[in-house]
Amino acid sequence: MKRREFVKNSAIAVAGVNILPSGSLFSDTKKVRMGFIGVGFRGQGHVENALRRNDVDIVAVCDVSDFMLQRTADIFKKAGKPMPQVFKGDPYAYRKLLELKNLDAVLIASPWEWHAPMIIDSLQAGLKYIATEVILGITMEDHWAVVREAEKQKANVMMLENVCYRRDVAAILNMVRQGMFGELLHLQAGYQHDLRTVKFNNGVDGGPGVEFGDKGISEAKWRTNHSVHRNGDLYPTHGIGPVAQMLDINHGNRFLSLSSFATKTRGLHKFVVDHAGENHPNAKVEFKLGDIVTTHIKCVNGETILLEHDTNNPRPYSLGFRVQGTKGIWMDVNKSLYIEGVSKTDDSWEAAQPYLDKYDHPLWARWGKDTEGAGHGGMDFFVLHAFVESVKRKTATPMDVYDAAVWSAITPLSEASIELGNQTVEFPDFTSGQWMYRKNNFALTDEY
Ligand SMILES: NC(=O)c1ccc[n+]([C@@H]2O[C@H](COP(=O)([O-])OP(=O)(O)OC[C@H]3O[C@@H](n4cnc5c(N)ncnc54)[C@H](O)[C@@H]3O)[C@@H](O)[C@H]2O)c1
């Protein structure tokens, strides 16, 4: 594959021209024919949203869990639609789904460790549009492998980073693009969400519970194991995605280096002991993940980013956004901002809401009503919408494989930094220098 050709095609795609070779699948039907791989709790949400659209046809679903497939069948029944073809029975049953001749796109919502192999298999099966849940892969090798295969196959891999579409975040992006904060200097974000009940099935199976792994349900089956074996920012993309869009990462800017710090490890062990006592087998598990992992990132254009991962202790949910530039600052936790020369009182916080209303992103102004019922306050509508519209128009997806790779790379890089005693480690350049020339096509219009 000639990189230059791919880059040229991507640039053309930004301008709205067809990037697919002639004879591509999505040509003679008005509906995007999708296969869903992994229909657990998250995948079911995407199925519900896809069933609401009249431009999507779900032709197949795949999962290894009969419990999850039954829940998915109930969703189809409720929507008054027949359950599509089901692929099940073994962990590689999805490869049979990929052999279907009538697929335009697949959506992958499986455990993290399955994302990279499923994406690569989908690319090699000839799919040109692949949506994957966060994150792209586990290791740096995974991220490189996905990037290289997407380039080779001239295909779109879009990570479904929904927080980029959160209403306040999109309004702030709009303000950033209009220069309201001046030149950006420092941004903060993170994943600050008490996941103890999720990691231990507590309440999920009618809890209380402290089980995970084979006895777990949904994310307790797999996600908790990452807290046993890994120490780093395991879930960077909900925070970094929106921040990267504001900073035009991969589009005239790029992440240069990071260093990460982890606190001691207490929360998960304490939860087990508090709920099941010191004699429960899981009280013997040694969790490796530091309770709060803090990552500092430096960008080529001189900005800094502070990212937090904080999931194992009692705390109210907050992604902790802060956007600060030479003219002002916004923070989401106090729902306030200050803009010099605009805010009425000097040196005082002002409610952000009137600004968020005034600078409401055109996407929300146009599609706000359609978001009703979609998960996470409506942002789940937009991320699927953007993917489906890209397939229909045969254009590049507004978030691409380079975005997915560099955002997801924070995890293995933060693990390396912590392992090396908080050393600063360098980001690779997945775009091979093209970040200098590429234009950001994320949320530029009210269309998708
Ligand atoms: N963007 C968001 O807001 C958001 C919210 C929740 C979860 N997620 C992400 O979605 C993904 C899935 O999370 P979830 O909460 O749905 O977890 P889950 O465990 O409920 O769902 C994963 C599903 O994949 C299935 N699966 C596992 N191996 C498989 C295989 N080899 N072939 C087919 N199916 C397989 C499991 O049986 C399960 O049904 C994760 O990446 C998670 O981080 C994103």
Descriptive keywords:
Rossmann fold; alpha/beta; 35% helix; single chain; Dihydrodipicolinate Reductase, domain 2; six-stranded parallel sheet; 16 helices; disordered N terminus; nine-stranded mixed sheet; binds nicotinamide-adenine-dinucleotide; 448 residues
Write a structural description.
The chain is an alpha/beta fold and 448 residues long. It has 2 domains: 3-162, NAD(P)-binding Rossmann-like Domain (Rossmann fold); 164-363 and 400-436, 2-Layer Sandwich (Dihydrodipicolinate Reductase, domain 2). The protein is 35% helix and 17% strand. The protein has 16 helices and 15 strands. The chain has helices spanning 3-14, 41-52, 66-78, 94-98, 112-124, 140-153, 167-177, 196-199, 223-229, 237-247, 267-276, 353-358, 362-367, 379-393, 401-408, 410-419, and strands at 32-37, 56-62, 85-87, 105-108, 129-132, 156-159, 184-192, 255-262, 292-299, 304-310, 322-325, 328-331, 336-339, 350-351, 425-426. A 9-stranded mixed β-sheet has the order 14-13-12-11-7-10-9-8-15. It is globular. Bound molecules: nicotinamide-adenine-dinucleotide (NAD).
In short:
The protein has 16 helices and 15 strands. By secondary structure, the protein is an alpha/beta fold.
**Which CATH C-level class of the largest domain is it?**
Alpha Beta
The CATH superfamily of the largest domain is: Dihydrodipicolinate Reductase, domain 2
**How would you characterize the largest beta sheet?**
9 strands, mixed
The 3D shape can be described as: globular
CATH architecture of the largest domain: 2-Layer Sandwich
- Please tally the β strands and state the result: 15
How far the N terminus sits from the C terminus, by CA atoms, comes to 29 Å
Mean pLDDT: 93
Low-confidence stretches: 1-24
Q: What's the helical proportion of residues?
A: 25-40%
Which cofactors or ions or other ligands sit in this model? nicotinamide-adenine-dinucleotide
Overall tally of domains: 2
Strand order of the largest sheet: 14-13-12-11-7-10-9-8-15
